[in-house]
C-alpha cells in the first residue's frame, strides 16, 4: 500500500511563492513607516529666492477638484507660487479664488498632436489674455510624448523654440522612475512610505529630456529656457509627496512676489530645478560674462557641482569659482549648465543623486 504524501500541485506552489514574496516585500516596505517618522515638509529658511512648483493639476482626470489639498501642500512647503496647468478647459477652484498664499499663476496643458504643451500664465483671466506672458509655452514631459530628438518636433514647435516663446520641461517627478536603473528602482520601492527622501534620492537622475534640451541649444545655437514639473494630480500623485521632488528656485528680485518678474527670470535662464528631499542647496547660480563663468555655490562635503559644456563635464568643485573655458576654434557657440550632485549612502551602498540643475542666467547677478 502506497502511503507517500502527494506533492503539491505546481499551481499551488506558485501561489504560495508569490504570496510569500508579496508578504516579505510588504513587511520590508512598511518597516520604515513603523519605525521612523515621515520627513517633515521642506520649508527652507528665508533667503533671496522665490520657490515654487510648475506643472500641477488641481483637477485630476477623474474630474475631482482637489484645490484645497494643493493649497495646503504648497503652504506646508512654504512655496511662493504655483503654476497650475489643468488639462484642456478644466478650471479648478485653485485659480478661481483670490487668496494669495501662495500666488497662483493660471496656466494650462493641452495635447497638440501627440505632444503636451503647457502654458505659464494668463489662460483663464480675460484681463491678461493680451499679456506677452500668455504666449509662453512649455513642452511638457517630451520623451514620454515620443520626442527623442529634433526630428520629432513639429515646424511650429521649432519656430517657437527659435523665437524664445517655448521652453522645455527637462524633468518630471512621476516619470523619474522610467529612466532609473533597476537596482535603484528596487531600492526606492523598498525604502517605504516613511522614507520618501531616500526614495526620491534614489530616483533622482538626469532624465533623457535633459539631453534633448542640450541638443536643442547646440543645434539651434541659441538659449532654450528650461523648467521642471511636479505633474502632481492629487490622487495617485499626491501634492505633498511630489511638490518637494522638483522645486523651481528663482532669484528674488524684490521682496513681494511678482509674476512678470518671475516669468522673466524663467525665460532668461535663471531657474534652478531642485530636489528638496536632498536638502536646501542655498543660493546657486551660473553667470557668463566676456568669456568667464562665475559659479555661486557653497556646498557641504558630501556634495559637489559639475559644470557641463554642451552636455560634457569640464569642471567640478564645491565652492564659489570663476572659470575661463578654453576658447573654441570654430564659430559655434558653447552652452553651459550646472548640476549639483550628492554622494550619500543607503546603508553600505554608495550612490550619487542629482540634487539640482541650473542654466546660465542671463540677468545681472545680485
How would you characterize this protein structure?
The chain is of the alpha+beta class and 366 residues long. The protein has a domain at 49-282: TIM Barrel, CATH 3.20.20. Helix content is 24%, strand content 26%. The chain contains 8 helices and 19 strands. Strands 1, 2, 3, 4, 5, 6, 7, 8, 9, 10, 13, 14, 16 and 19 form a 14-stranded mixed sheet that branches. A 3-stranded antiparallel sheet has the order 11-12-15, with no helix packed on it. Helix 4 (182-191) packs antiparallel against helix 5. The termini are far apart. The mean pLDDT is 83.
Give structural attributes.
alpha+beta, TIM Barrel, 14-stranded mixed β-sheet, 8 helices, 19 strands, 24% helix, globular
Task: Give the number of helices.
Answer: 8
Query: CA-to-CA gap between the ends?
Result: 93 Å
Strand content: 25-35%
CATH topology of the domain at 49-282: TIM Barrel
Unreliable sequence segments: none
What is the total tally of β strands? 19
* Overall helicity: 10-25%
Largest sheet: 14 strands, mixed
Order of helices and strands: HEHEEEEEHEHHHEHEHEEEEEEEEEE
CATH architecture of the domain at 49-282: Alpha-Beta Barrel
CATH class of the domain at 49-282: Alpha Beta
pLDDT averaged residue by residue: 83
SS-derived structural category: alpha+beta
Oligomer: single chain
Topology overview:
Elements: H1 10-35, E1 49-56, H2 67-76, E2 81-84, E3 103-106, E4 108-112, E5 115-119, E6 137-140, H3 155-163, E7 166-172, H4 182-191, H5 196-203, H6 208-220, E8 226-232, H7 239-242, E9 247-251, H8 259-267, E10 272-274, E11 285-289, E12 292-296, E13 303-309, E14 312-317, E15 321-323, E16 336-342, E17 345-346, E18 349-350, E19 353-359
Parallel strand pairs: 1-2, 1-8, 2-3, 6-7, 7-8
Antiparallel strand pairs: 1-9, 4-5, 5-6, 9-10, 10-19, 11-12, 12-15, 13-14, 13-16, 16-19, 17-18
Amino acid at each position: 500500500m502506497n502511503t507517500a504524501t502527494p506533492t503539491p500541485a505546481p499551481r499551488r506552489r506558485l501561489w504560495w511563492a508569490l504570496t510569500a514574496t508579496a508578504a516579505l516585500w510588504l513587511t520590508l516596505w512598511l518597516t520604515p513607516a513603523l519605525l521612523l517618522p515621515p520627513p517633515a515638509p521642506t520649508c527652507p529658511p528665508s533667503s533671496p529666492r522665490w520657490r515654487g512648483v510648475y506643472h500641477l493639476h488641481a483637477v485630476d482626470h477623474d474630474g475631482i477638484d482637489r484645490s484645497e489639498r494643493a493649497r495646503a501642500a504648497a503652504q506646508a512647503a512654504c512655496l511662493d507660487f504655483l503654476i497650475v496647468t489643468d488639462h484642456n478647459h478644466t478650471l479648478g477652484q485653485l485659480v478661481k479664488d483670490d487668496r494669495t498664499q501662495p500666488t497662483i499663476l493660471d496656466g494650462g496643458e493641452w495635447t497638440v498632436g501627440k505632444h503636451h504643451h503647457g502654458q505659464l500664465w494668463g489662460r483663464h483671466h480675460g484681463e491678461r489674455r493680451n499679456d506677452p506672458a500668455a504666449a509662453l509655452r512649455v513642452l511638457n514631459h517630451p520623451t514620454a510624448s515620443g520626442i527623442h530628438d529634433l526630428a520629432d518636433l513639429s515646424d511650429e514647435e521649432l519656430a517657437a523654440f527659435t523665437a524664445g516663446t517655448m521652453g522645455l520641461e527637462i524633468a518630471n517627478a512621476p516619470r523619474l522612475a522610467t529612466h532609473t536603473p533597476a537596482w535603484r528602482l528596487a531600492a526606492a520601492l523598498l525604502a517605504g512610505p516613511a522614507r520618501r527622501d531616500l526614495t526620491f534620492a534614489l530616483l533622482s537622475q538626469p532624465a533623457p529630456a535633459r539631453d534633448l534640451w542640450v541638443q536643442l541649444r547646440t543645434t539651434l545655437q541659441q538659449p532654450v529656457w528650461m523648467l521642471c514639473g511636479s505633474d502632481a494630480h492629487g490622487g495617485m500623485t499626491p501634492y505633498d509627496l511630489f511638490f518637494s521632488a522638483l522645486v523651481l528656485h528663482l532669484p528674488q528680485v524684490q521682496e513681494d512676489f511678482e509674476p512678470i518678474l518671475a516669468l522673466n527670470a524663467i525665460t532668461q535662464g535663471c531657474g534652478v530645478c531642485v530636489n528638496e528631499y536632498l536638502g536646501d542647496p542655498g543660493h546657486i547660480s551660473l553667470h557668463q560674462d566676456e568669456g568667464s563663468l562665475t559659479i555661486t555655490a557653497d556646498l557641504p562635503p558630501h556634495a559637489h557641482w559639475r559644470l557641463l559644456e554642451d552636455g560634457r563635464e569640464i569642471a567640478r568643485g564645491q565652492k564659489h569659482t570663476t572659470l575661463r573655458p578654453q576658447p573654441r576654434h570654430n564659430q559655434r557657440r558653447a552652452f553651459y549648465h550646472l548640476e549639483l550632485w550628492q554622494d550619500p549612502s543607503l546603508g553600505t551602498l554608495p550612490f550619487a543623486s542629482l540634487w539640482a540643475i541650473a542654466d546660465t542666467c542671463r540677468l545681472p547677478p545680485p
